[in-house]
Amino acid sequence: MLNHASFPALQQRSLQTVWHPCTQMKQHETYPLVPIRSGKGVWLHDTEGKRYLDAISSWWVNLFGHAHPEINAAIRDQLDNIEHVMLAGFTHEPVVSLSERLTKMAPGSLGHCFYASDGASAVEIALKMSFHYWQLCGHVQKNQFISLQNDYHGETLGALSVTDIAIFRETYAPLLRPCTHVPTPDWRYAQPGDTPEAHALHTAEMLEAYLAKHHTQVAALILEPLVQGATGMGMYHPVYLQRAREICSRYHVHLIADEIAVGFGRTGTMFACDQASIAPDFLCLAKGLSGGYLPLSVVMTTDSIFQAFYHDKTARAFLHSHSHTGNALACRAALATLDIFERDRVLETNASKAAYLNSIATPLRDHPKVENFRHCGMIWAFDVKTGDHEFAAKCFRLGLQHQVVLRPLGRTIYFMPPYVISDEEIRLLIDATLAVLNTMTD
Ligand SMILES: *Cc1c(COP(=O)(O)O)cnc(C)c1O
User: Fold this and answer.
1) Global pTM?
2) Best of 59, 152, 379 for a ligand 1 pocket test (most atoms within 8 Å of beta carbon)
3) pLDDT digit string, tens, across residues 99-158
4) Helices 239-250, 196-214: inter-axial angle, 10-degree rounding
């Protein structure tokens, strides 16, 4: 059994040996870590008995709350059979069932599933497969990737090359491959008077102009469909995806849809691509795939891409090898997650939860410090008028005092709650956020 150390002791021990992600460790000299003992539904409980509403689903991974009884039971059951077996030369029921179900749900005919553990690795796999495919087809000069301005695709070197978030990228720039980031359809960048749709069409024209010139060198366009998460929940009109699909097909460039954050109902449809009725050549999924329980990611692709690798020669195969590919426990968690989706008509329930949140969000939307209030499915965001460089850190701490986990991206506050959030919890969230905004002085 684990010993539950006291709150301050655990904070101290963590700072001595755990290097925390996305964190300047020195700041913890002043700001304490929060030791979490347990979770239930949307709530996280710390070791002193305080609770916090997990309004950002633990970095966007959790779908149905913490300690969901059915997902817990599925993992326990799997534990008694096989926890993990290498997927080269072996297979198992959970990975086969999951692949079959994902193929049925995904847009288009993405019938081949390649698994990894994290989102960044899924992006690496999609990039490698796309490049390798063109090599196998004799288009050896197709070795460039393009992505959208402000896109985020993970932080391993290949994924970081197609990411356009300065704070993550700049330090490592000498290690990265050159990548063109075409103009973003995010409507906050629209010319005055332009609608989100007009802006999406306009930026799609710029994509076309780029590919008309460079398509012979470009293997793939990778993008975050509908919502650019890490830049601060930038949202755009689905017509951009329709145009991007047409343009990529016309110029023989793969379209990689990175639905790592937006897949599994986040944007209101099962996949964001569904809102544009398009299918990518590669679909990357992670985060919510296992309900957020265990690290699991997948790249889904078409039969024509799969067939290019299918050959007598070993060297023509996709030899990417990852120890934990298709982990059985993670696949069982994913299957239990899909069961909940099917049985509980989650997309419909979410639509009414979203309508309720919007109906009571007027004081936020109209708050003098708030601009660009926006919403897509189960994601809400707004930008706060502030010149305070410490805004995000202050907001996080104030949020905790009001029992809610807010972790702004720059000056953007966003909600991405677990789908099990109740109306009462939605009210708590709005009230706590208003209280935080009203406490902040500038
Ligand atoms: C989180 C995220 C990734 C990276 O996933 P990890 O599991 O953190 O490596 C990639 N793309 C998008 C759009 C993401 O939101």
Assistant:
1) 0.98
2) 152
3) 999 999 999 999 999 999 999 999 999 999 999 999 999 999 999 999 999 999 999 999
4) 10
Residues in the chain: 442
Beta strand extents in 297-352 (DSSP E only): 297-301
Kindly state whether residues 101 and 86 are assigned to the same domain: yes
Ligand 1 atom at minimal distance to the Cα of residue 286: 7
- Do the Cβ atoms of 46 and 7 come closer than 8 Å? yes
Distance 294 CA to ligand 1 centre (A): 14
Structure confidence by residue, pLDDT tens digits, 275-319: 999 999 999 999 999 999 999 999 999 999 999 999 999 999 999
> What's the CA-to-centroid distance between 154 and ligand 1, angstroms?
5
- Same-domain check for residues 369 and 273: no
Residues with CB under 6 A from ligand 1: 118-120, 123, 152-154, 224, 229, 258, 260-261, 286-287
Per DSSP bridges, beta strands 412-415 and 379-384 are antiparallel
Residue 206 lies in a domain: yes
Same domain for 263 and 353, yes or no, is no
Asked if 102 contacts 312 with a C-beta cutoff of 8 angstroms, the reply is no
